Amino acid sequence: MNRPRIRTFSHHCRERFGQTIGKIPLDLGITCPNRSKGGCLYCRPASFTPFSLRATDPLDEQIRRGKKYLLRNRFTRYFGYFQQETATAMATAQLIPILAQVLEDPDCVGIILSTRPDAIAANLPAALAHLIDKSGKECLIELGLQSIHPASLQLLNRQHSFEDFLGAVRRIQAVGNLQLGVHLILGIPEESETDMLQTMQTVCTLGIQALKVHHLQVIRDTPLHTLYEQGHVTVFSHKGYLELLLRLLARIPAEITLHRLWSTSHPDLLVAPRWQSLTGALSKELQRLMTERDIWQGQQANSK
Ligand code: SF4
Fold first, then answer.
1. 103 part of a folded domain
2. Tens-place pLDDT, residues 76-110
3. Helix (H, G, I), strand (E, B) or coil at 139
């Protein structure tokens, strides 16, 4: 087959922009509202902060350093990626001018806002839609859900429900020109493969454009680390995770872009699983297995 077996972010960008596009992580310097409620079980911001990003830098300096250290000579254009904490916890009136400033850079093709379902203010979707119309660029909102199952959301201390998520989806989709992505974790304690498949299939029916999926990682000094040390958490082997992906990928509709299939937490903070393979090698291995077994994304997207 000529088309790629997975609709990766780079494949999507080549199709949409005629070239691959980088992401520059940006930090607004605000704190996720869930931290005052204990934070998510697995979360430690330092584990997903790239070395080049300093929250104390003004945004134009963060972009300059991102271009220098992350884009280097690999990409000429980028998405401003507000991945740190919960960007939309900032008041809409304060956030929109900041995003407008980022979108003014001709090298910036759009913004990605990583956030929580309960942090989409009533006036935010319309304000973002107006900004995106004016700029002619793109906005993807990545909603962290992790699982549709109430027991898992409670265990992870997400402090929102699946219904909160559905409400945020409706409000975002109502304005028409915002793209929507969902972030899921595979391997949440007590979840079976059927539970994970149910989550995946449910979110794939919601008209989303992107998925960010990764395996559960235990990060040092998080509440999940304590549970892991007490023997309550099982993590995937790299072979086991690839086999799970091979079974799930065929169920994901071919038009959904997969921004991520595994985590890449800072090695100094990662307790488990400590696979020896780097992401490039994992990706090659997955592609090889998909070719050998003739599996492709979307192959069984309509099967129950
Ligand atoms: S919502 Fe995101 S940033 Fe906030 S505590 Fe949870 S994982 Fe961390």
1. yes
2. 999 999 998 999 999 999 999 999 999 999 999 99
3. strand
